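Please annotate this fold before class:
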Amino acid sequence: MIRNSLRRFSRSARTRAFRAGLLLFALLCTVDLISLISARQNQNLPAKAPDVRGQKIFIASIHWNNEPVLRSNWNQAVLGLVDYFGAENVYVSVYESGSWDDSKEALRALDNELGRKGVRRTVKLDETTHADELKQPATDGWIQTPRGKKELRRIPYLSKLRNVALQPLNSLGNSTKFDKVLFLNDVVFTTEDVTTLIATRDGDYSAACSLDFAKSPRYYDTFALRDSDGHEAVTSTFPYFRSKASRNAIISGHPVPVQSCWNGIVAFDAAPFYDPNHLQFRGVPDSLALHHVEGSECCLIHVDNPLTQSHGVWLNPNVRVGYSPEAYAAIKSASAWPSMGQSLVGVWSNRFWRRTTSTKIKSLRINGRLKSWTKGGADRSERGKFCLINEMQVLIENGWAHV
């Protein structure tokens, strides 16, 4: 009898605890829901796209096997930017190399259309393939890999291509000074996306980025994005960030303070790209890469940018682009992004992973390799520690690989 009473009491206690837990969870969800609704109501988004006409825009891009998106959206979107800003206020610099699809023909078609509109431009179509690059070993950018051979690093190679796209900026001399450098990935975008991005914080930034998606709702560019504390995103879905400042900003729909981003489209204040700063893309030194450490050129550019500290790097969550028409439609067709349900699930997922994961192991690993590397010479230093990851990336004939 006593035993049965104890069992009933135990079951009753568990039931009460379970109900109390459910009640607490429901209460917290309600608080989160109210906060999300309040944040959405206070976004104060402009009723129409901001007017940034009159600015001079240097448009740069690099391409490799991008024919489908070039023909379906990209070429026409670039022409739309020309129409908006005016041919006299735009320079288009495109560099393509080694594509085995029909990217060259697609870009020749764009070149012809730009010519008809009187746009100053450089459209360089290079026959050099990855296989050709791998036959021409040089000193810089080549390292001995664990596979027992000398291989070409991916990041210095990409840095070189991006710097080629930037070359006309200084060769134009003082005849034209551009206000913004706009780097476009092979993404689907509209003129409104670009004008909204350029108008981020009324133009007060060293760089402003979009959010990019290959398959919604997961964002794409995990390599370059770092929150305001220099951490990688804790989740690939909204609200993404580990740092409180970045997380609160994106929940509110406001420009997000970050230490680095790229994410499909990035607008830079053009001043640092001119002499004497002559800001350029780069990779980490080869001697550091030998320690199995890599960092994106699209992250390191913010480290080197002299305006980063004073004007900041910002991600604009109201500018979202896709790597295909389908991906773009998925993140633009909804009346509200993300939906309230996605927001609530995302907030809880983010909370869980923030509290059950740590950045300490990664930091200890990278710090240890940096310390070992710096012992090799007094001149060895790397300011972009938050960009660094435990990887080695090399070029191969049909793309790139981890080793």
Remarks:
- Residues 235 and 350 are 6 Å apart (CA to CA).
- The mean pLDDT is 91.
- The domain at 57-362 is CATH 3.90.550.10 (Spore Coat Polysaccharide Biosynthesis Protein SpsA; Chain A).
